[in-house]
C-alpha cells in the first residue's frame, strides 16, 4: 500500500487539541482537509506526522511549539494610547480586531490582551503561538 510522501496531494480528517484537551479545530462534519505534503501549506509538525501514513491509518501526533506556530514573539505585541483608538471601536480583553498595516493595505488580525485607563495592548501573534499541539489524524486519500 502506498505511503504518503512529500509532493503527494493528501486528504485527512483531523481534530486539533491543546495539551489540556481543549479542541481548537476539527474537520468533523466537514469535508477532509486536502493539501500537498511538503509544501508548507500546513505547520511542519502536521506535515511530518502524515508522512509515511497509508490510507485508512489513524494516529495521534504531538507537535511541539517549534513545529507548530512557534513561540510567542513579544515584538508582535504593542501598546497604544486609548486616545489614538477611534471612540466608535468597542474593545475588551479577548476581542479580535483587524488592524490595517501602514502603506501595505493588508489587514492583520490582533487580539486585545489588556485595557487600562490610558492604554490598550494588542497582540498580533497567532492564537496558537507558544502552545504544544496534539492532532488526531486519519489519512483518507492520497492523490
Automatic annotation (TrEMBL):
PROSITE patterns the record matches: FKBP_PPIASE
Catalysed reaction, written as an equation: [protein]-peptidylproline (omega=180) = [protein]-peptidylproline (omega=0)
Gene3D superfamilies reported for this sequence: 3.10.50.40
Keywords: Chaperone, Cytoplasm, Isomerase, Rotamase
Main subcellular localisation: cytoplasm
Primary enzyme class: isomerase
Enzyme Commission number(s) of this protein: 5.2.1.8
Ranges of residues in domain PPIase FKBP-type: 7-83
GO function terms (MF aspect): isomerase activity
InterPro entries, per database record: PPIase_dom_sf, PPIase_FKBP_dom
Keyword hit for Isomerase: yes
Record function comment: Also involved in hydrogenase metallocenter assembly, probably by participating in the nickel insertion step. This function in hydrogenase biosynthesis requires chaperone activity and the presence of the metal-binding domain, but not PPIase activity.
Family: Belongs to the FKBP-type PPIase family.
Identification of the protein by name: Peptidyl-prolyl cis-trans isomerase
Organism expressing this protein natively: Flectobacillus roseus
